Structure to design on (242 residues):
């Protein structure tokens, strides 16, 4: 995480002691050189699945950050794509990283809270990558209702979700330690920085999506690996807006 090109330990500490919005403003110039950016392998796997679903007119990247997911939308949408994020710093980096091209969809960037989206039902596809840890479980109903409200009938909300790490594994212990450190930090310091990796689990997420009015389907992403029991390490959640 602390590399020659990435953020220094001091910069990471300053970000961790800030609010979510200001923390990402601080991290934005070096965010793409941290492990927090969604890996290209995940983006490519999702892009292949989305393209197989057909061609969409308009797409929304929810909590777009520096725009990694905008590349997925650019391949799938023919008219316009929009990235929305609460961090002005992340959006500024995204504008430079994902410029509009003459032969591609119109690209827009909007600063807004995902829990209060400033759109009507104008999108056919919504995607999101790596952002759900910023929302506590009690916020999911409102968040998913917002996404449902900005999708046209027949639109889809698509995102990858990882299988839980095996208890006792190095990944499990690392995530457990991170979430525990974050809880202690938020007990001792204000403003809070909400980011919990273990809370976003498939079964309760699927239930909340269904309650929000979506019909939920799952697609395996086998190219991202399999667990010892043969199940995929990642699945794609496809929530259809009827």
């Amino acid at each position: 995480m602390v590399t020659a090109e990435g953020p220094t330990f001091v910069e990471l500490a300053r970000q961790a002691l800030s609010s979510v919005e200001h923390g990402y403003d601080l991290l934005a110039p070096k965010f793409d050189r941290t492990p927090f950016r969604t890996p290209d392998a995940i983006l490519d796997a999702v892009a292949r699945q989305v393209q197989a679903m057909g061609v969409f007119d308009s797409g929304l990247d929810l909590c777009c950050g520096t725009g990694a997911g905008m590349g997925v939308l650019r391949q799938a949408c023919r008219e316009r794509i929009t990235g929305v994020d609460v961090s002005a710093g992340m959006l500024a980096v995204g504008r430079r990283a994902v410029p509009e091209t003459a032969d591609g969809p119109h690209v827009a960037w909007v600063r807004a809270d995902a829990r209060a989206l400033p759109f009507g039902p104008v999108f056919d596809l919504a995607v999101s990558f790596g952002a759900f840890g910023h929302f506590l479980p009690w916020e999911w109903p409102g968040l998913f209702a917002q996404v449902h409200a900005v999708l046209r009938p027949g639109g889809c909300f698509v995102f990858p979700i990882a299988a839980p790490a095996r208890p006792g594994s190095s990944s499990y212990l690392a995530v457990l330690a991170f979430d525990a450190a974050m809880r202690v930090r938020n007990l001792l310091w204000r403003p809070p920085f909400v980011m919990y990796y273990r809370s976003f689990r498939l079964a309760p997420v699927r239930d909340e999506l269904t309650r929000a009015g979506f019909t939920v389907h799952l697609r395996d992403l086998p190219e991202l690996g399999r667990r010892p029991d043969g199940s995929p390490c990642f699945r794609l959640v496809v929530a259809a807006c009827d």
In short: The CA atoms of residues 45 and 223 lie 7 Å apart. The mean pLDDT is 93.
